[in-house]
Design goal:
binds adenosine-5'-triphosphate, single chain, Tumour Suppressor Smad4, binds calcium ion, alpha+beta, binds N-((E,2S,3R)-1,3-dihydroxyoctadec-4-EN-2-yl)palmitamide, about 30% helix
């Protein structure tokens, strides 16, 4: 039996030096440090472990054992090392990409000061690359990186940087497995390497929604203990041509416009989103188009069931199993019934996870799941500024943001969007008839008296990157990637397990 701070150690061999009780997470030994000093007949052996703090934060703590002889100390050390080595889920070698440019430009400092010392203490070796330009990490992963040498990839940056990493990894996995990554109907191969996120961006919603906090030390500890959390990925195509993948928010209208405007203000750091958000709220543009979607059927959960995706989520386990069985039976998602909605929208958002972040702690779709093979399609129809503000405010309160007449939400496996100006002649004809022949254009101008005309189209905000096309086809790939995370834990802050 190997000692851990959780068990009272046998008196004759080893016992905590510190008097009183010790707090520990599940009381699992995280690291082991070597014997640091030897006095006459006493060997001191500090062992590091994880301690839970407030609001899902983890901290590294230490307990020191003393042994009467060097030999018994070495036996304890060897025993613990053996136990840790036998744990296959803990990474030993990691490929680390640092974006020195994201968020407040602190990525390098955060990694060097807060994360690297923990990796070193845990005996995790690293190969660190500080990126020199946008898409450096993506291209390195696609073509150069010797992935067999590593047990995982770590991304130091924000959602955009994480997006680069998964683009590189997913592409590489498909090419290595002879799967065509560009084909919209292809069943993609899941990536075997896990990705760790050290938050150093502006929103960091993927980290927040999978860990419960944006804290570099907590994320580093989740990587060290070898946590694993599967995640859905949406593939986005335009006319059968691959555009991008998305794991969090795919937003047209409001969030697309906020992103486009905020890119010009990058020098402001994370505050750019608030300023652009206010500006776009006041601008109040709506966009016309057609949304078609394939509802998710036969699965557990709905977008308004009040459930929350948490560590060990049964909905994700159940739906993941169901969808993989479906794939084995060669059933395609095409056999369901597509539905179509035509209209004027302030925002069209697809949230593949809750998209919780410090700005919106419960997220855009609080009941969305990380790994259930679906995305929540949220349609905010044209409404007054006052009503839109009511909807936005509910992202920050306990009230249901979908309980409004101009908002609807559907849990879907696939969807398509066609902006009005791209619609086929027959669709346009239908529109004209619906709008009393020809009055549609003057209608738009009446709705925007300040400028006299409305923009015909917005852009898609795809995990914080702007998409080049507006007409898109989106498909969810269930559990395509894995993170060094465990989902948000139910256990609340401050709770410590006491060692007697
Ligand atoms: C009145 C307060 C309303 C507050 C409403 C806050 C809603 C915030 C919802 C945030 C959802 C983030 C989803 C994640 C998206 C990421 O993939 C992406 C890349 O990191 N981040 C953004 O696009 C960054 C998107 C950032 C959007 C910020 C929007 C701020 C809106 C402010 C509206 C002010 C109206 C004030 C009227 C008096
Ligand atoms: N060395 C670099 N120089 C310039 N841009 C880079 C570099 N490395 C990565 N990038 C790009 O920087 C962009 C922003 O990075 P990141 O997502 O880390 O920060 P952010 O946008 O501030 O945060 P968030 O996405 O969480 O809102 C990404 O699009 C990424 O491709
Ligand atoms: Ca999902």
């Amino acid at each position: 039996m190997v000692p851990s701070p959780s068990t009272s150690a046998p008196a004759e061999t080893c016992g905590p030096v510190l008097p009183g009780s010790v707090c520990a997470v599940k009381l699992r030994c995280v690291f082991l440090l070597k014997c640091v000093s030897r006095r006459v007949c006493v060997c001191v052996c500090p062992v590091s472990y994880v301690e839970r703090g407030r609001q899902h934060r983890w901290r590294c703590a230490q307990v020191t054992f003393t042994c009467p002889t060097e030999a018994s100390c070495q036996r304890w050390v060897a025993g613990i090392r053996e136990l840790l080595a036998a744990n296959a889920s803990r990474p030993r070698r990691l490929l680390v990409y640092i974006n020195p440019y994201g968020g407040k430009k602190q990525g390098k400092r955060i990694y060097e000061q807060k994360v690297a010392p923990l990796f070193a203490r845990a005996g995790v070796s690293t190969h660190v690359i500080v990126t020199e330009y946008a898409n450096h990490a993506r291209d390195h992963l696609r073509t150069e990186a010797e992935l067999k040498q590593f047990d995982g990839v770590v991304c130091v940056g924000g959602d955009g940087m994480f997006s680069e990493i998964i683009h590189g990894l997913i592409w590489r996995t498909q090419v290595d497995g002879s799967v065509d990554p560009g084909c919209p109907d292809e069943t993609l191969s899941p990536c075997s390497l896990r990705v760790g996120i050290i938050p150093a961006g502006s929103t960091d919603c993927i980290c927040f929604a999978t860990v419960g906090t944006n804290d570099p030390v907590t994320s580093a500890l989740h990587i060290i203990v070898g946590d694993s959390q599967a995640m859905d990925v949406c593939s986005i195509h335009h006319n059968n041509t691959f555009l991008r993948y998305s794991v969090s928010l795919l937003g047209y209208g409001f969030y697309g416009d906020v992103l486009t405007d905020s890119e010009r203000k990058r020098w402001m750091g994370p505050a750019r989103y608030d300023l652009s958000g206010l500006k776009m709220f006041l601008t109040h543009h709506y966009y016309e188009g057609t949304v078609s979607y394939l509802p998710a059927r036969g699965i557990l959960g709905t977008p308004r069931d009040g459930a929350r995706c948490r560590s060990g989520c049964v909905v994700c386990q159940h739906n993941g199993q169901l969808l993989s069985e479906k794939a084995e039976r060669y059933e395609t998602e095409n056999d369901g019934e597509w539905r179509t909605i035509r209209g004027k929208f302030l925002a069209i958002n697809a949230a593949s996870m809750s998209c919780a972040c410090p700005r919106s702690p419960k997220g855009l779709s609080p009941a969305a799941h990380l790994a259930d093979g679906t995305t929540d399609l949220i349609l905010v129809r044209k409404c007054s500024r006052f009503n839109f503000l009511r909807h936005l405010l509910r992202h920050t309160s306990k009230d249901d943001q979908f309980d409004l007449t101009f908002v609807e939400v559907h849990r879907v496996r696939r969807f398509r969007f066609t902006p009005r100006h791209c619609q086929s002649d027959s669709d346009l004809e239908l529109d004209l008839r619906e709008n009393n022949k020809g009055q549609i254009f003057s209608q738009i101008c009446t709705d925007h008296p300040a400028c006299g005309c409305a923009p015909a189209y917005s852009s898609w905000n795809c995990d914080g990157e702007i998409l080049t096309h507006t007409a898109i086809d989106v498909r969810v790939h269930c559990q395509l990637i894995k993170l060094f995370a465990r989902g948000i834990e139910e256990l609340e802050s401050g709770l410590c397990v006491t060692v007697t």
